[in-house]
Structure formats: C-alpha cells, structure tokens
Amino acid sequence: MSKIKLILAGTGDFSQKIFESLIKNENFEICAIISQPNRKLDRNKNIINTEVALLAKKHNIKLFQPIKIKELYNDLKQINFDFFITISFGQLIPNNILDLAKKASINVHGSLLEKYRGAAPIQHALLNNDKETGISLIYMIDKMDAGDIIFSKKILIEENDTALEIFDKLAKVSIENLANWIIKIFNNDISPIKQKEELVTFAPKIKNEDAELFLNDTKEKTLAKIRAFNDQPGAFLIYNNKRLKIFRASINKVKTPLNINFSNGKLYLIEYQYEGKKRVKHEF
C-alpha cells in the first residue's frame, strides 16, 4: 500500500505528542504541518517556538504558521494529500480548505462528544467532577466540533487526576488508536454517527479570572477548580493579602503545614506557591 498523505494542524504539547507518533508511523507521509504563530517570549524576550513548530523543524517537515488559516488556501491547494487532521488547533477551518483533502478532514477532540464542544473540554469535565471522559474523532464541518463521530475511546478520571494527568491519558489513548482509525477511514471501514443536538454541552475557553478561588466556596468546588486549572492558568487564592497559587490539594486530612478553611471545611494544600516565593511540594 502506498503511504497515506497527511497534513497536520495543531499547536500545544498535546498535539505534538500525537503528531510525533504519526510521523514515526511508516504508513503515513506528512506533507506539511500547520501551527499557530509563535507568540510566547522567554525571560530574555526571545520568541519561543510552539511545540508543534519545533516538531516540524526537528523532522524537516514543511511548516506553516499563518495568523489566519484561510491565508493558506493557495499553498495547500498545491499539495496532494488524503487527510487534513487537526488537534487543539484553535481556529475554525474554512470549507474551501476542508474540501482539499482527498479522503477526509478530521479532528481529534478531548471529550466524548456530544459533551463539551469547545476549547476546554478537559477542564470542564474536571470542574463538573465527571468520572469519565475520552477522545472523539470527528469529521470537520463549518461548525465547531459538530461533525459526525467516526470513533471514540473512553478513559476513567481518577480521584486525584488533574488536567495534566488527563491530557497525558488522552494523548496516550490517541497515540494507541489514531493511526488505525485513519487507516480504517481510508479503507471505508467505518460507521459514523451523527451528533444529537439535544445532548450537546459546551466547554468555552478558560479565562484567567475563572481560576480565582474564594473562601466562601465549598471545599469540593474549590478542589475541582484546582484540579481543572492545575496546568493553565493555575488556580489562585488571595490569602493573607498575598496571591497563593494552588496546584494540588486534598479534602482528606494529610500531614501538610498549610490548610485553609473554606465554607464547609478544610482543604489540605499539597503543592502551592506564594507570589514571589519558590513552589512547595509535600510528598507523602
């Protein structure tokens, strides 16, 4: 079988891990990689490449970093490719680009759709204390995360999982399954399922202010926010007139020097950082 030709679009660490597995798979030829522009700066004000941009450069793959994806239509039109694949890309892809793929334009989404369409499905699953989540592989259409579901895979959310652990679990599940799923689509060995609009829920992008903690909230609600925002932007509390970032905590009593009273009881802080101080982590 000749190699299946892919164009990949994504930006963060989650995308990078999964794309690396496709690059190393001998069934595929990666024709190009698309990333968001490099926007972050290091301490010396030097521009930092996105993880996906670094991946493309590492493997000498053609890289595009448009401000708007629609700018790439003429460039992509010159490329012969079977699949256009997005993972955490952050832009809605216009129809004229979706239609360039000879076989399909597909998206890996970090929830069990119809649940949690949008930019932050993992965080919203944790905020709602869900016991399971997963990935969905869907066709892309001109409506966010609304295409037919081609495949999905469930994972359990453990009691102490934070967003970091869920990202890692979903990346692992994607790496284990995505290549086979692409081949099945290529061979027409699929039975897509339409999403039921009455079951749809949304997971809008997280803002920095969403991560603020309040002493008049319950300890359960507070812990859910700490777990959800462990990676970005980081849950924080104004405590004794200082900004305190909390990365991990427990409702159960543990031996830690810092515990804080919320509306219905104490939270025991396991990993935290006062503004201007070093990050503290207690091991048990």
Defining key terms:
alpha/beta, Rossmann fold, 2 domains, 7-stranded mixed β-sheet, 5-stranded antiparallel β-sheet, 26% strand, transferase, GART_AS, protein biosynthesis
Describe this structure in words.
- This protein is α/β, with parallel strands linked by helices and 284 residues long.
- It has 2 domains: 4-199, Formyl transferase, N-terminal domain (Rossmann fold, 3-Layer(aba) Sandwich), CATH 3.40.50.170; 208-281, Formyl transferase, C-terminal domain (Methionyl-tRNA Fmet Formyltransferase, Chain A, domain 2, Roll), CATH 3.10.25.
- It is 24% helix and 26% strand.
- The chain contains 7 helices and 12 strands.
- Strands 3-2-1-4-5-6-7 form a 7-stranded mixed β-sheet.
- Helix 4 (95-98) links the parallel strand 4 (83-87) and strand 5 (104-109).
- Helix 1 packs parallel to helix 6 and helix 5 (121-127) runs antiparallel to helix 7 (219-228).
- The radius of gyration is 21 Å and the shape is globular.
